[in-house]
TrEMBL record, chain A:
This is Carbon-phosphorus lyase complex subunit PhnI. Pfam families: PhnI. It comes from Paenirhodobacter enshiensis. One of its GO terms (biological process) is organic phosphonate metabolic process. One of its GO terms (molecular function) is lyase activity. InterPro entries: PhnI. It comes from the Bacteria. Keywords: Lyase. The keyword Lyase applies.
TrEMBL record, chain C:
Its EC number is 4.7.1.1. InterPro entries: PhnJ. It comes from the Bacteria. It comes from Paenirhodobacter enshiensis. The lineage of its organism: Bacteria, Pseudomonadati, Pseudomonadota, Alphaproteobacteria, Rhodobacterales. GO terms for molecular function: 4 iron, 4 sulfur cluster binding; alpha-D-ribose 1-methylphosphonate 5-phosphate C-P-lyase activity; metal ion binding. One of its GO terms (biological process) is organic phosphonate catabolic process. Catalyzes the breakage of the C-P bond in alpha-D-ribose 1-methylphosphonate 5-phosphate (PRPn) forming alpha-D-ribose. Belongs to the PhnJ family. It catalyses: alpha-D-ribose 1-methylphosphonate 5-phosphate + AH2 + S-adenosyl-L-methionine = alpha-D-ribose 1,2-cyclic phosphate 5-phosphate + methane + 5'-deoxyadenosine + L-methionine + A + H(+). It is an enzyme of class 4 (lyase). Keywords: 4Fe-4S, Iron, Iron-sulfur, Lyase, Metal-binding, S-adenosyl-L-methionine. The keyword Lyase applies. This is Alpha-D-ribose 1-methylphosphonate 5-phosphate C-P lyase.
Amino acid sequence: MYVAVKGGERAIDAAHDWLARERRGAPELAEIGNDQIAGQLKLATDRVMAEGSLYDRDLAALAIRQARGDLIEAIFLIRAYRTTLPRFGHSVPVETAAMACIRRISATFKDAPGGQILGPTFDYTHRLIDFALLAEGAVPPPRDPETMPHVTGFLGRDGLIEAADPDDTEPGDLTRTPLSLPADRALRLQALARADEGFILSLAYSTQRGYGRTHAFVGELRIGLVTVEMEIPELGLSIALGEVELTECETVNQFLGSKTEPAQFTRGYGLVLGQSERKAIAMSLVDRALRWKELGEDFTGAPAQDEEFVLSHCDNIQATGFLEHIKLPHYVDFQSELELIRRIRAEALKQGTADTTEPEDRA
Amino acid sequence: MTDLQMTRPLFSVRDLEKRYGARIGCTGVSFDLYPGEVMGIVGESGSGKSTLLGCLAGHMAPDAGTIAYDGRDVLAMSEPERRRMARTDWAFVHQNPRDGLRLSVSAGGNVGERLMAVGGRNYGKIRDTATDWLGRVEIAADRIDDRPSAFSGGMQQRLQIARNLVTGPRLVFMDEPTGGLDVSVQARLLDLIRGLVRRMGLSAIVVTHDLAVVRLLADRLMVMKGGRVIEAGLTDQVLDDPQHAYTQLLVSSVLQV
Amino acid sequence: MTDQAYNFAYLDEDTKRMIRRAILKGVAIPGYQVPFASREMPMPYGWGTGGVQVTAACLTPEDTLKVIDQGADDTTNAVSIRRFFQRTADVAVTEHTRDATLIQTRHRIPEEPLTEDQIMVFQVPIPEPLRFLEPRETETRKMHELSDYGLMHVKLYEDIAKNGHIATAYDYPVMVEEHYVMSPSPIPRFDNPKLDRSPALMLFGAGREQRIYALPPYTKVRSLDFEDHPFEASKADHACDLCGAEDSYLDEVIVDDAGGRMFVCSDTDHCAGRRAAGHVGRLGAGTEDVK
């Protein structure tokens, strides 16, 4: 019997109750705490902060819990909350040279002032499941962070890498102004910083495989705390708002030169909230690939070079919403197609041209 | 030719220059093109002939000089005006038909696009016109619903020509129209182009490195080297009695047709 | 009861002002897609965030809101959006088309003619009618600027050449005041004629794509076609099995394992109204209790 039309209200209520039960899991087990998520699933929390583009570890942990561990859903919760927050202004550019580093490596120089610090990395762990984690284990004591100069600064001193001059232009804000193309680099970096890690990773990988190759070296990768400052015009000074943890990657890329300008390396840049070096490295590769026009390179048709393609598809909240909306009812549009295809078939059959060959795909 | 000289030029170019930074693309180019006249531009690759064609057809902006079409300053036109002109009065035949065709659209749709762009709204008439034009470029009428991706290179090029000429333009730019085709196919295509140009009274500017093409199509000729026109004149005159050393070299290095 | 943590209708007043400016610009240039700084809403992109923002910017406490999805007031997403505004704006809601001052819709226009006192808000997934012909925004904006619509007709031409018909059944492109080609949102083409010279203000919101566009009252809207293949506002060749209406858009419902079908009005308010007035369709008698 026909009951599909009514019942939407009750169905939604029931779904919400069910979801709440599932979220809690087995009631005989202790509920997981926010601080446990923030502390022990820190990298998941960091990803939610980065792609949610809101630096609030507790909120990110709460979102992960509410989202039952679905990180994109958690990012969505953060974004929806973030958009309701008032904006006071923007900070002074953070000084990553003054970063208190817990990790700092360079793939271009064996050593540089400050040295290489491996820090808390998975890099040289053997990916063997550690069954000892099932039991509690003792951990080594923490190590103090250090500050150290940028490696690319040494290249810059000799003019070996393109200059990255400070720019006081107020950057655009993707969340307050509709994206218009072509976008400037500041806006592109903004979009990449909150872009989906998987998407950026795959794009960066594609440049390494030849789709928009940029011959990148990791000039420096560093993770650590920086102070965020904001200028208060009324006071005529800048005040420190607090510290955030960042991952920064600077790549040194294929060089350019001409008869008038001597050859120089070029730069790619990645900066991500929290600790995510995969994202930061990938971002710097994609940033570099997108700079083909200003550097006078050819557009080879590679996806990573295509600004409109990259910026239009890098946001996982937009992507997941639109992707999943196809599970909403489409009775009406489907019905209209059904009606049309029946009519076209009926006419074709009537005309006796009833060959049922596959119709060509639509242009 | 004297009749032509009496009328006003259709297309006038004065002191055209295009630079790529310090490098010269083309410079000091001036000429007049009269209604019904075909101008050939020859030179080897890097001579500036493609840059010149790009500037003339509005694909790139020259750095200096003037271009007048039918008495109007082309470079001062607004983009809408220029686009409208590009799809009515002008036509551009690319060397690679893939650049000038929509490969996922049927042959009929390719020919019909310009008609629809200028307001054609009768399906039957558009189809009739497309069929007629396929015939004129020697493509069988029953290929009208096939996509050009299934066509041979020569057919694609003929389809591109039909697509361009269907709205009856007055000025056609051609960039190596026979490049990349087999010699036998080239000859047939050249014949076809010559017939269409003469019958429709078209003015045309043909860029090529192939002297046989200009010998057959062009009334007049400009020879380019290093971004400059080094010799110009009636085609037969230039080819039979080249004055400039470079032209002599060019002429002597190819088989006469 | 409104949710005190949020402003009236959720969005802050600055954001609403920004959206209203975009709406006004859209009204001033019918059919033109106005970029706007779409906010991240607490519902997914593609689920009506554009419509919700336009509605939020237009709502006043005195409004009566109706929300439909596929023509029905009780489909889950319609319920969800209606609840959102009940919660954040505490406005009166209705299922009756004639009682509503603002109707947010996805994929349908109500059967009952609209009036000058009503605003229709459409949820739009892809505002660009040229998108699947030319994927680049930079290029499509230029095509609109120059009214360069040959390509749009090439698509229609190809449909006829291949199928004998224009094979666009929904989201059928329209020409607004002989200037801009516009997407009417994925309404069935049956609804297209309702756009032409409608007394109601029609607003279109695309959240993910950050576009708003509008048809002010009595705007001329023409569905694209060829002289010899004119536009047809078609529907299934049946009457509603519940209310007997022959002129309303129908949903097809599979009713048994053998693939048996029934056809019912997609506009549930229209159908209920007709049945209340005594109209009975082929299967209408046995279904009173399932409302």
